[in-house]
Design goal:
Order of helices and strands: HHHHHHH
Low-confidence stretches: none
Number of helices: 7
Largest sheet: none
Strand content: under 5%
Mean pLDDT: 87
Number of domains: 2
Distance between the termini: 74 Å
Number of strands: 0
Helix content: over 70%
């Protein structure tokens, strides 16, 4: 090996350490060899104060990258399968029935209560904005939204 000499005992110790860190004893030596090449390239422009630590860190990173690439390759093959994520027909029908029940519940609310609830839930307006527009207090808006929501929850229970 060119550059920093690594004796056989140190090399074996580094391979064992990398195998433990990457949980991959089969490829640990390959990771260490790649890390050694990286270190040599790095040393062309920088000082390496602790070659063993550099080698372990670089080899561990190489092992992690290798694991990620393998996982992506496997995941990519699985993603070729076309899955149907659309809801089942009975789920669609049930959702439509619930929606109709919510619409019916909204129609049973007093006009101002319905308006406040829709401004808050559908338009996403702030309590302060609604209060200012309707000339009522923020606490009144909060109370109206809470009571209307409670009413709709109870009205649609079991649907």
């Amino acid at each position: 090996m060119v550059g920093i000499p690594v004796d056989k005992g140190t090399w074996k110790r580094l391979v064992r350490k990398i195998a433990r860190k990457t949980n991959n004893s089969c490829d640990a030596e390959d990771f260490l060899q790649s890390a050694y090449l990286r270190m040599e390239n790095y040393r062309a422009e920088h000082e390496v104060r602790n070659p063993s630590a550099f080698l372990v860190r670089a080899a561990t990173n190489i092992g992690i990258d290798s694991f990620r690439h393998q996982r992506l390759a496997i995941g990519g093959a699985e993603s070729l399968e076309i899955g149907d994520n659309s809801p089942l027909q009975d789920e669609v029908i049930a959702a439509r029935v619930r929606l109709e029940r919510v619409k019916e519940g909204l129609s049973r609310l007093p006009p101002q209560t319905r308006e406040v609830l829709l401004m808050r839930r559908l338009d996403g307006r702030a309590y302060e904005d609604i209060a200012a527009q309707l000339g009522i207090s923020r606490s009144t808006v909060e109370r109206i939204v809470a009571s209307a929501t409670t009413f709709l929850i109870e009205y649609t229970k079991g649907w």
